[in-house]
Amino acid sequence: MNALRNPIRFIPLLFLGAIAAGTLALSMPFATLDGTSPSLMTALFTSTSAVAVTGLIVVDTATHWSAFGQLTILILFQIGGFGIMTAATLFGLMAGRGFTLRDRMATQVERSRLDTGDAVSVLKLVFVITLVVETIVALILTTRMRLFYDASWGDALWHGVFHAISAFNNAGFSTHSDSVMGYQHDAVILGPIMLAVILTALGFPVMQDIRANRLQWKKWSLHTKVTVAGTVVLLLFGFVAVLAMEWNNPETLGPMGVGTKLLNAAFHSVMPRTAGFNSLDVGAFRDETLMVNYFLMFIGGGSAGTAGGIKITTFFVLFAIVASEVAGRKDAGLFQRRFSPGIERQALTVTVLAATMIFAATTYIAAITPLAFGDILFEAISAFSTVGLSTGITAELPPTGQLMIIALMFIGRVGTITVATALALGGRDRPYRYPEENPIVG
Q1: How does it sit in the membrane (predicted)?
Q2: What do you get for the CA distance between the two ends of the chain, in Å?
Q3: Among 62-76, 240-254, 403-417, the least confident range
Q4: Tens digits of per-residue pLDDT, 102-146?
């Protein structure tokens, strides 16, 4: 009963329940194409990846799972994405971080609580945005697949709907064995997927802020300004880096024309934001490109959305702290606003905890497998940041390695939200302070 009274504990239990239900459904013989029951590990891994909207797979979604199995996966990542958006937004409001959905919420945020009407408003807005965006993207993809890829209306509709929902939820699951590599020359397919991923990677509070204040920059909250500006910077950085590093790679961009190179570089600059689709063979990337992906995946997207990682705001808070320290300024901040010491500590805590978990998982998997260290590190960051991109080693991991990836996906998806909220709500002042003494740093 204590978990029911405390949403910070209750949300992880709900996600565990969804994973358990998904594992049971995917364990049925009729969930696979050949009619045999998959192993418990396969069902558990796939269910966790779907609920955590990650997209890492140990079996081919297109050829292993039946229509029932694929539908189950779709339902799981829709539940996971919707649940994450609503839970993270409500937690943000509870923590009083300025995620104002309506003017009447202001007093509730100041008291760090929400009433039932506020919660219903959040659910309604998330539901409407989800329905509208997924429907538009599904219609575009369905029509394109039917008219230009000689698919029947039934097949086109299924593939279009599946990819639209997967993109909006940043899930990265595909009904094609090669993800979206078959569409690497088609901007009408890749474009809507990119836009859906970018939108939800911004986070729901940003969407609402932009909806309420349109493009009036001065009226945007600091959270929205940092998220939007950070998104633009990281997308441009990823685009230029992938384009430059893979331009002559014969296994990725090399054979393509200039226009197609630009399209695929842009597409892949978006995907490490935690979407997981790939129009290029990630396993063929050069080492320097993988390094850029480590960086982009670790940061992830915006808060209170379907993106993972430590989040854009966390990264830029830390960046501002470093810049202020180097410049000798007492306060750190951005856009004529300073950060509180509490926010600075939270950003540092989330980042250190994330790095520690990735380090521990990478070290463990490297110790039990002969796989290349770079590929293992890529897999660990992808799992924790719920990205879903892989160099192709997921199915090669031993059961204990797959369990480690499962743990990373769950912690990266649910843990970051609950930890950040607990830090924001759980601060208590001691009635005393110890004497100050500073060690030598650096």
Answers
A1: Multi-pass membrane protein
A2: 48
A3: 403-417
A4: 433 333 333 333 344 455 666 777 788 889 999 999 999 999 999
> 70 CB contacts (<8 Å, ≥6 apart)?
61, 162, 175
The whole-number pLDDT of residue 267 equals 97
Helix (H, G, I), strand (E, B), or coil: what is residue 244?
helix
Beta bridge partners of 65: 32
- The SS3 of residue 332 is coil
* Distance separating alpha carbons of residues 401 and 407, to the nearest angstrom: 10
- For the entire predicted model, the pTM comes to 0.87
* pLDDT at residue number 342: 81
Tally Cβ neighbours within 10 Å of residue 435.
4
Cα–chain center distance at 135: 21
Q: Give the tens place of pLDDT for each residue, 35-77.
A: 999 999 999 999 999 999 999 999 999 999 999 999 999 999 9
DSSP assigned state of 218: G
Which one, of 204, 267, 276, 203, lies nearest residue 49 by Cα?
Answer: 276
The answer to whether 48 touches 410, Cβ cutoff 8 Å, is yes
Residue whose structure tokens are 């660990």: 380
Amino acid (one-letter) located at 372: A
Reference 421, options 4, 105, 6; nearest CA is 6
**Token code pair at residue 198:** 């970018």
| Residues near 267 by beta carbon (within 8 Å), at least 6 away in sequence | 190, 193, 194, 277, 279
Residues in the chain: 442
